[in-house]
Amino acid sequence: MGITQELDSTESISQEVIFPPGDLYSDEPPLETELHLRQIILLLSCLEWLWRDRNDFYVAGNLTIYYSPHQSKLEKFRGPDFFVVLGTERKTRKSWVVWEEDGKYPNVIVEILSESTANTDKGLKKKLYQDTFRTLDYFWFDPYTLEFAGFHLVDGAYQPLQANELGHFWSQQLGLYLGIERGLLRFFTSEGQLVPSPEEAAEQAEQRAARLAAKLRELNIDPDSI
């Protein structure tokens, strides 16, 4: 084949290429979108930073929970988007195996909704977390529509939580509020203060140091000499 024929062939192929639209859900389970991943990482990093001096909890995202009464990993397992177990050792795990963890189930679960998972999260999973896991605090959040709901287990059944004046739901288990800030689900203290991420905390520390240095210079004190 000559050069001219090769160019004609390449041009013909390139004209047939149709690129798909960019706003597509990934077919790669179990995370639906990049935003889901960012949301889970944000919850993880913020809680671990807040509880950095504690060693009595386990927090994970997108991790399998095995809960078979037959102690088999071939049946009965689920992977919540985000969960917290209290009163346990803080260490790295490949999965959460209930029968290897003194029968403990998550105290708190958060599911990040999507078009393909919303019905399951609101139905099948909610019932599972209520009846089998007995998880005391359950929340779901849609990062695109900003739908947000919270439930607390009362006498064996989930009761909807009532939001405060800021639209935040209180988690008795965490001792924190959960609420939406700039389109993302965040933790807030009992006083309503946003729990920062490690990056945000570092930036705040730098800003405080800069203000202190400026104040010292106003007093004719060289901050570098202290």
UniProtKB/TrEMBL annotation:
Residues 20-181 form the Putative restriction endonuclease domain. It comes from the Bacteria. InterPro entries: Nuclease_put_TT1808, Restrct_endonuc-II-like, Uma2. SUPFAM superfamilies: Restriction endonuclease-like. Transmembrane segments: none annotated. The keyword Nuclease applies. GO terms for molecular function: endonuclease activity. Keywords: Endonuclease, Hydrolase, Nuclease. The keyword Hydrolase applies. PANTHER family: SLR1095 PROTEIN, SLR1612 PROTEIN. This is Uma2 family endonuclease. It comes from Calothrix parietina FACHB-288.
